[in-house]
Amino acid sequence: MHINVHGLSFSYGTRRVLHDVSFSAAPGELVSVLGPNGAGKSTMFRCIMGFLKAGEGQILIDGADINSIGRRALAERMAYVPQTATPVFNHTVLETVLMGLSGHIGFGRAPKAAHAAAALETLDNLGIAHLKDRGCMEISGGERQLAFLARALVQNARILIMDEPTANLDYGRQHSALERARALAASGYTIVTSTHNPEHAFLYATKVLALYGSRIVADGKPSEVLTEELIEKLYGIGVRLHDVPSNDGSKTVRICLPGGATAYNGVRGA
Question: Which CATH number does 3-234 carry?
């Protein structure tokens, strides 16, 4: 499914957060959105999901304006992983994931064995099946983030909107979650995610969007648009980009060193 955003603008009162934002995302793409805190990334995601009504512009899902799509139909097309989520009730991890199937099960109906099996399989793929009977208030923030990711995945929507999905995850789980996202994109999903880590964009994204000053200031392949100058503009810190061999030596991987650090151990500058 395609996302097309045209001239999106949004304000909180008199404070303009997004101004004339336009971009597209297609099946097979993993779009990584970068920008400093307060740049409007989360607001843009909430507009795309229909949680906030755009002040100006248009958001299309496969050519249909989101304002013309009912909430249930929209949930069948798009799933959302929020940046942070504090549960109000201490539902178990399994119950939380099953909530992602509410559109398939129907209001007021109990999940069937097949629904529970799908939820458990998703939890197992993310390495947290052992937490299925634990309350979401009784697990770590990172484990809770994985539970919400599982809830989005089991929804089986072909568009995934993920707002800093790795923010609370340890190093290993960050990369496991992003590997999973990349595999889904390769299978035909449309994925839009945000990060503050340029290396995540280099490693996993097919396209980068950079938000700064309420506008899109870069849109393209990570290797082409994610430059030292752009990263410094976004985050106010000098960096050096370097290409290093991958573990198997089959390709090079771009890394980002802060503070204008120089090359080391024979690593060459980008």
Answer: 3.40.50.300
